[in-house]
Design a protein that fits this description.
The complex is a heterodimer of chains A (81) and B (169). By secondary structure, chain A is mainly alpha-helical. In chain A, 74% of the residues lie in helices and 0% in strands. In chain A, helix 1 packs across helix 2. In chain B, 0% of the residues lie in helices and 47% in strands. The chains are: A mainly alpha (81), B mainly beta (169).
């Protein structure tokens, strides 16, 4: 598993505090961010395989897949909030 | 003898070079009603020791009981913020280019107000004998994010104002 660096954790904290009330401690949001990182790492291969199945016989590049995943996540979580 | 306050934010106020201390309109994140436009100094949530430089003259009627007062708020409702003050008090003919702090205060953190955006006043006691009437004080207001065991608040701290408190003749 990749471990988020201190700078990456700080970036997550800084992004999450804007325009909301924060009721957690640094250590708690750091742990939450790491869990998300672990989940994405664990499931990256499966997502890639699923995209390949969906686009067969075309195989998208990893860069293309990452952009799609990032944009769909942004849309989904903006829609769900 | 009475307690006096003088404002210490002004033309000498300058953030450090981290990029994590900066002035921004209160309306950007601290306030939502935006009734009174104003500037606050943001001390971001980091793992570093953030500094805001200030300077002020010790008033001519200074006797003692020196303190730095910080008026601040935050959007976080749990945890602590570590506020400190490092300074040198400079008398006539002393070096105006100090190479070390005369005093660096220590703190184990101030618990946040518990409700977002409440004004909180934190006073930091200084060694009164370090200062004398007419001295020029150069210093930094510090949020010590490097103190990870005590600075636990996961959001920016917004410095709204700051003062020097003392007792007069």
């Amino acid at each position: 598993m990749a471990t988020l660096s201190a700078a990456e954790l700080q970036s997550v904290r800084n992004a999450c505090e804007r325009s909301i009330t924060v009721n957690y401690l640094k250590a708690q949001i750091n742990a939450a961010a790491q869990v998300v990182e672990d989940f994405l790492t664990s499931n990256a291969a499966q997502v890639s395989t699923d995209i390949n199945t969906a686009t067969s016989p075309l195989v998208l590049t990893n860069a293309q897949k990452k952009k799609i995943v990032a944009e769909v996540c942004r849309l989904k979580f903006d829609r769900d909030k | 003898m009475a307690t006096r306050h003088i404002d210490i934010l002004g033309s000498n106020t300058l953030p450090d070079t981290t990029g994590s201390v900066y002035a921004e309109p209160a309306a950007v994140n601290l306030q939502s009603n935006d009734r009174y436009p104003g500037i606050v100094f943001v001390f971001a949530d980091t793992s570093t020791r953030l500094k805001l430089g200030i300077g002020f003259e010790v008033p001519q009627n200074y006797v003692g009981t020196a303190k730095i007062g910080l008026l601040w708020a935050t959007t976080v409702t749990s945890g602590k913020v570590v506020w400190e003050f490092d300074y040198t008090s400079i008398a006539d003919t002393e070096s105006s280019d100090p190479s070390a702090d005369q005093e660096s205060t220590a703190s184990t953190g101030t618990t946040v107000a518990g409700t977002a955006r409440l004004l909180k006043v934190t006073e930091i006691s200084l060694t009164s004998a370090n200062l004398a009437a007419g001295d020029w004080v150069e210093g930094v207001i510090v949020r010590d994010g490097a103190d990870t065991s005590n600075d636990t608040a996961a959001a920016s701290a917004y410095l709204i104002g700051a003062y020097f408190s003392y007792s007069d003749v």
